[in-house]
Amino acid sequence: LGSPVTSRTTRRPQNRVSYTLGLLDGEVREGFILLGKKGVYKVEKFLGEGSFGRVAKCKKLGTDKVVAIKIVSGSAQTEINLLKELSKIDGDKHNLVKMVDCFRYKSYTCIAMELLDQSLYDFMRERYNQPLTVEEIKTIAWQMIVALKGLESINLVHCDIKLDNIMLVDQVSEPFRVKLIDFGVSDKITNMRTGRLMQNMVYRAPEVHLGLPLDQRVDMWSLGYVLCVLYTGTFIHGWDSEYDIIRAMVNMQGMPEQKVLNQGLYTESFFTKTEENSGKKLWKLDTPLQQSLKTEKSKREVEQFVDLLKRMLMMDPSKRISPSEALRHPFFTLGRMQPTAGSNNTKPAAVENSKSSSKGLSSVQPLTARSAPPNKYSHQILKKKKKKKKQ
């Protein structure tokens, strides 16, 4: 599953545009019949276009099953191999999209996956970027941290966590149950090389910007940023340049430690080491989340949420919170936990009472609706997205 065109927040090379437009005029069209290894599929309609192909809603003939088929030009062997790796763990339990079939159609590779509802990006856009409540965010955060823990168990790094790649499963029947999708640029931890450029620039971890050693902690940073956007209803920095993003990171979290900056291959691109500021922290922590504290009924819960975000967004990856540590954070545990039936594990009350044991940690209860904190910037991000869509 790829990201919709409207989600693109970084500048793309011109040849990428011509490639995707060319794909739209390719051979796979609505009404086509695709012969898979595990069934025959009829293309009903196209759902969207991503960086590397299109996604179609398809009916599996002879059954009542509907799937999403990602149609990619070329072999897509890397993504297929990674999806096979994912099959080693329970996709429902770990909130990861499941591949159900994979086959070739002429020059295209078709990857059939379970059909999900809509991305968090589209969900936020439809509600005019009105921020979610802390309780709703807690439900999403828990499931995605469980997903990261699952990826960590098989030594995989997603490398592209963003609003577009977190899908609501079925918002009507299972509110805020989510799954992580799109493993097109994922990789094994052992393949992560210092200096490698990865992740959407908006969600990019500081160690990628600075050229520090890389591992699975880049995903935790991106998830922390996603949660910030869900709470504030706006991106917390611009994306005109990497410098703007680094500056916003420093304004929010303070200067990275000197030992971290000294290791960076690209540190000199953003920082100048002088006798005056060497070894000193330049900016005081000041996050937009603090402005919303007065509007929330449960100030303590918001403070716990902010503390979790700070730990997820640590500039020094060695100090960043791990998935296992995050699941034990007071934001999830303090006064909110119930034992999981038949298990020593625990989860938030908001994701308790699974409908079946196979769904495990992913199942959620409907949340009580309550007003989200007002945000004066929510209309601005919507206008920016509309402008980009017109371009």
Automatic annotation (TrEMBL):
Region entry Disordered, spans: 335-391
Biological-process GO terms, alphabetical: intrinsic apoptotic signaling pathway in response to DNA damage by p53 class mediator; positive regulation of transcription by RNA polymerase II; smoothened signaling pathway
Q: Which residues form the Protein kinase domain?
A: 41-332
User: Which SMART domains has this protein been placed in?
Assistant: S_TKc
Give me the stretches of Basic residues compositional bias.
381-391
Spans of biased composition, class Low complexity?
A: 354-363
* InterPro entries for this protein: Kinase-like_dom_sf, Prot_kinase_dom, Protein_kinase_ATP_BS, Ser/Thr_kinase_AS, Ser_Thr_dual-spec_kinase
What are the record keywords, sorted? ATP-binding, Kinase, Nucleotide-binding, Serine/threonine-protein kinase, Transferase
Give the record's GO CC terms: cytoplasm; PML body
Q: This chain belongs to which protein, by name?
A: Protein kinase domain-containing protein
Q: Please spell out the taxonomic lineage of the organism that makes this protein.
A: Eukaryota, Metazoa, Chordata, Craniata, Vertebrata
